[in-house]
Design brief:
4 strands; 4-stranded antiparallel β-sheet; globular; alpha+beta; 170 residues; single chain
């Protein structure tokens, strides 16, 4: 599958099979995130791999949006390690973590795994529960696993605005 077809095929999986994710596949997904470009190559991302029974139980207690995935990647960014734009003072941690998360999502898709980018959860409760350092901001969850039989994209998945609505050509 070429890259464009891969991006079209990827969808948010909200129902996972009761099947573990192989370590070599998980490692490849994490490496794809590590390969992501970040501002000035500062690499402020901090990825917490939630896969023990205890960690999965904790995240499921925080949000229903873990979707019973066997692995949940908790994506954080260290604001002290991130680049700060001198022109506007913006810290790049969230942008960098978005790129990292996207690359992990697409790598998972290529390996036959499903993901769902989740922001619907209490970030402060998550910080306290998993003892995330104060310098790190909790940005997203990425449930990860094999899609359950019958898992399908949401109805609006294929609804896309025309390029003329989202692209300005100068």
């Amino acid at each position: 599958m070429d890259f464009f077809e891969l991006t079209k095929a990827r969808y948010s999986v909200r129902k996972y099979a009761d099947r573990p994710v192989e370590q070599d596949k998980l490692d490849k997904i994490l490496a794809a995130g590590a390969n992501a470009p970040t501002a000035k190559n500062q690499q402020p991302q901090r990825i917490y791999v939630l896969q023990s029974a205890e960690a999965i139980e904790k995240i499921r207690g925080i949000t229903r949006c873990a979707f019973d995935a066997p692995v949940v990647l908790l994506v954080c960014g260290d604001r002290e390690a991130a680049w700060v734009n001198p022109f506007n003072g913006r810290n790049s941690a969230e942008m960098d973590c978005s790129i990292v998360t996207t690359q992990m999502m697409l790598q998972a898709q290529e390996l036959g795994l499903g993901t769902c980018w989740v922001c619907w959860f209490d970030t402060e409760l998550t910080r306290r529960t998993f003892r995330i350092p104060d310098s790190q901001e909790v940005f997203a969850l990425l449930p990860l696993g094999y899609p359950a039989e019958g898992s399908r994209p949401a109805a609006a998945h294929d609804s896309r605005k025309a390029l003329e609505e989202t692209v300005v050509r100068l």
